[in-house]
């Protein structure tokens, strides 16, 4: 074992393990035998999962992998996603069951049962047809978190149109690029939505984007805020066109490989890629993983995923997986701190949410705001709590379990990507003894591993690159219009293996720890050190709420570790002075070893993040290397870098 592996393994020796609660283990949807079942016959296993869905024509072949890496799942099968997510639940007598408890940011609410959803989706599908949208056409959707968003997606699926949802925080340029790339025929938007207590406009951005997007024939506008919007000839109001449609529409069965949606990956670098997902395999794996990882009991659970539908998490775990399973979900429009910092916990108490899914960035924000805020709400309904989007630091994991999960709800740390479509690596809440910070094992039916730079599996205790070794049902099928880019980006680094772009380690038990994007690994005096590990070490200090770490060029060590730290709200004392900075450096040295000791720590009020909550280390590297700060246009909050620059002269 090299020195860096030895020193860095300290963090992995986090010894606390959390066994599933006995009653959950007893009644779990998925038990340990699923791993053996899937290992014995992977394709047979996925065929059984596909039987959760209703097919209008059965498939002839589970997987066609004769032309890798271009996969076809459930070859010859036909089904309709909207029928599976909506109609069949109504037909089974569950029309009165709530599909969504929608909560607007200002406090207005709307309840949609499965019967309501069938009616609304049918009307929207008829409206799309009237507007000239046909099977195979692309529809751009640029909406806030209002019921018309999932309704629009399902209406597309119902008629076989392919949707491309663009997150409502993106600029006109970003929207236009995505509309152009997909050659979308119409865009569905709204006058605006509510954010931080105020109406925030959307339509003006669409007008600007569409002025340079000749493929668009109509803009379909939902009225949400009632604010004035400019009128164009191409505009049609939702309440004019959709409301007068027939409530009857027969969903059109499509081929299992029919394109369901395109979703552009934001990424922190490079041109956005249109990730293409298709129908049968995608719905099979989103439904199965939602059932397995969240242990959904559709009769009794209330499920809430706090993501925005504009990201893949929302596509798979607010819309498709939960609806395919007939779940009752919460859908929330706004921000966590409007009108107060306990809003999320108030929503959980109000609806009795039992299954909750959020991101580490949110968890760390709540840690920063203080323990007393969740403590003021009744969160006892929660029984499984999930995390997604980046590695969850052991400290944040334990806080989440203690303060949100009432000290007992299992945390499921779920690793996946826009490209994988569904969860790939995660504990099973009724089976796995969870370790804080570890995503643990590939789910049944998924074959993933950690390999070295020659593509050879590393032994337990080793680190390298995360790869997927066998095709999976919800895998991306290509990059829209760019088969070559698909092969090059994902399938060329290692022969026959899917390259995820993430670093990972296998601990002594063979459990997996995700270490962030491979571009985020630092090389300090010849040792590979991951930014995630140093960040976790910093966050494990009681006075630290959040930390970001970058490698800055250093004449002596090649790269040096530079950290940016936000102290906890409750920290007290001097959290600016040299003494505190020394305390933090020593704490990292003690946790990870002297090699990981940051050269420099800067105390900052905020961290630069993309709209999906990923830290933009590129900008922090600019600060660390004393360069002028690069393009900030994809920041969630454009003022953060000003705050940081203002702050730094005094922080050294
Ligand atoms: C990247 C994918 C998947 C939905 C949201 C993000 C990172 C995601 C984890 C996790 C460690 C994680 C990876 C991955 N990531 N989940 N549980 N532990 N890292 O989708 O925007 O496509 O990002 O997010 O780096 O490659 P995305």
UniProtKB/TrEMBL annotation:
Modifications after synthesis and translation: Acetylated. Deacetylation by the SIR2-homolog deacetylase activates the enzyme.
The protein, known as: Acetyl-coenzyme A synthetase
Role: Catalyzes the conversion of acetate into acetyl-CoA (AcCoA), an essential intermediate at the junction of anabolic and catabolic pathways. AcsA undergoes a two-step reaction. In the first half reaction, AcsA combines acetate with ATP to form acetyl-adenylate (AcAMP) intermediate. In the second half reaction, it can then transfer the acetyl group from AcAMP to the sulfhydryl group of CoA, forming the product AcCoA.
Assigned EC number: 6.2.1.1
Keyword Ion transport: no
Stretches assigned to coiled coil: none
Names of required cofactors: Mg(2+)
Residues at which ATP binds: 389-391, 413-418, 502, 517
All copies of domain AMP-dependent synthetase/ligase, residue ranges: 92-472
Species: Actinomadura sediminis
Domain Acetyl-coenzyme A synthetase N-terminal: 33-85
Gene that encodes it: acs
Residues bound to Mg(2+): 539, 541, 544
Keywords attached to this entry: Acetylation, ATP-binding, Ligase, Magnesium, Metal-binding, Nucleotide-binding
DNA repair among keywords: no
Residues that coordinate or bind CoA: 195-198, 313, 525
Entry similarity comment: Belongs to the ATP-dependent AMP-binding enzyme family.
């Amino acid at each position: 074992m090299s020195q860096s592996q030895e020193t860095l393994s300290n963090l992995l020796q986090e010894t606390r393990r959390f066994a599933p609660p006995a009653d959950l283990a007893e009644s779990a949807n998925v038990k340990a035998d699923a791993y053996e079942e899937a290992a014995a016959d992977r394709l047979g296993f996925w065929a059984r999962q596909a039987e959760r869905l209703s097919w209008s024509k059965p498939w002839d072949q589970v997987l066609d992998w004769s032309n890798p890496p271009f996969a076809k799942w459930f070859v010859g099968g036909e089904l309709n996603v909207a029928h599976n997510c909506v109609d069949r639940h109504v037909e089974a007598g569950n029309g009165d069951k709530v599909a969504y408890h929608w909560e607007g940011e200002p406090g207005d609410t709307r309840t949609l049962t499965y019967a309501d959803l069938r009616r609304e989706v049918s009307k929207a599908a008829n409206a799309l047809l009237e507007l000239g949208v046909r099977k195979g056409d692309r529809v751009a959707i640029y909406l806030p978190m209002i019921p018309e968003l999932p309704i629009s997606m399902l209406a597309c699926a119902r008629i076989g149109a392919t949707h491309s949802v663009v997150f409502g925080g993106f600029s006109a340029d970003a929207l236009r690029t995505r509309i152009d790339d997909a050659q979308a025929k119409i865009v569905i938007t709204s006058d605006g939505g509510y954010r931080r207590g105020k109406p925030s406009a959307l339509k003006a951005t669409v007008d600007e984007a569409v002025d340079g997007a000749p493929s668009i024939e109509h803009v379909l506008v939902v009225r949400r805020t009632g604010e004035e919007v400019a009128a164009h000839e191409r505009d049609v109001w939702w309440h004019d066109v959709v409301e007068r449609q027939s409530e009857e529409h027969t969903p059109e069965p499509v081929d299992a490989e029919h394109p369901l949606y395109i979703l552009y990956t934001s990424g922190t670098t490079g041109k956005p890629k249109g990730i293409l997902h298709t129908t049968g395999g995608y719905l099979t794996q989103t439904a199965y993983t939602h059932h397995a990882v969240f242990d959904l009991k559709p009769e009794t659970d209330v499920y809430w995923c706090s993501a925005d539908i504009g990201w893949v998490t929302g596509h798979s775990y607010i819309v498709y997986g939960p609806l395919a399973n007939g779940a009752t979900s919460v859908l929330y429009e706004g921000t966590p701190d409007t009108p107060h910092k306990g809003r999320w916990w108030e929503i959980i108490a109000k609806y009795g949410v039992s299954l909750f899914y959020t991101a580490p960035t949110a968890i760390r924000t709540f840690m920063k705001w203080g323990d007393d805020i969740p403590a003021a709400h009744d969160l006892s309904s929660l029984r499984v709590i999930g995390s997604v989007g980046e590695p969850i630091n052991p400290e944040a994991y334990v806080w989440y379990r203690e303060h949100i999960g009432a000290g007992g709800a299992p945390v499921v740390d779920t690793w996946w990507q826009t490209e994988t479509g569904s969860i790939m690596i995660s504990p099973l809440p009724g089976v796995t003894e969870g370790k804080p910070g570890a995503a643990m094992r590939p789910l049944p039916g998924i074959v993933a591993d950690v390999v070295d730079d020659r593509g050879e599996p590393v032994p337990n205790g080793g680190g390298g690159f995360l790869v997927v070794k066998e095709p999976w049902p919800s895998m991306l099928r290509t990059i829209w219009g760019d088969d070559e880019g698909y092969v090059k980006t994902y399938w060329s680094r290692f022969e026959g293996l899917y390259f995820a772009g993430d670093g990972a380690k296998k601990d002594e038990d063979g459990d997996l720890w995700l270490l962030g994007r491979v571009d985020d690994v630092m090389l300090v005096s010849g040792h590979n050190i991951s930014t995630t590990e140093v960040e976790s070490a910093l966050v494990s200090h009681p006075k630290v709420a959040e930390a970001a770490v970058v490698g800055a060029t250093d004449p002596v060590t090649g790269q040096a570790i530079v950290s940016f730290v936000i102290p906890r709200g409750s920290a007290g004392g001097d959290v600016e002075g040299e003494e505190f900075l020394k305390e933090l450096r020593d704490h990292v040295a003690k946790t990870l070893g002297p090699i990981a000791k940051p050269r420099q720590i800067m105390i900052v009020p905020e961290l630069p993040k993309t709209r999906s909550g990923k830290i933009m280390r590129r900008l922090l590297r600019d600060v660390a290397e004393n360069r002028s700060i690069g393009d900030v246009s994809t920041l969630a909050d454009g003022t953060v870098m000003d705050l940081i620059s203002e702050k730094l002269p005094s922080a050294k």
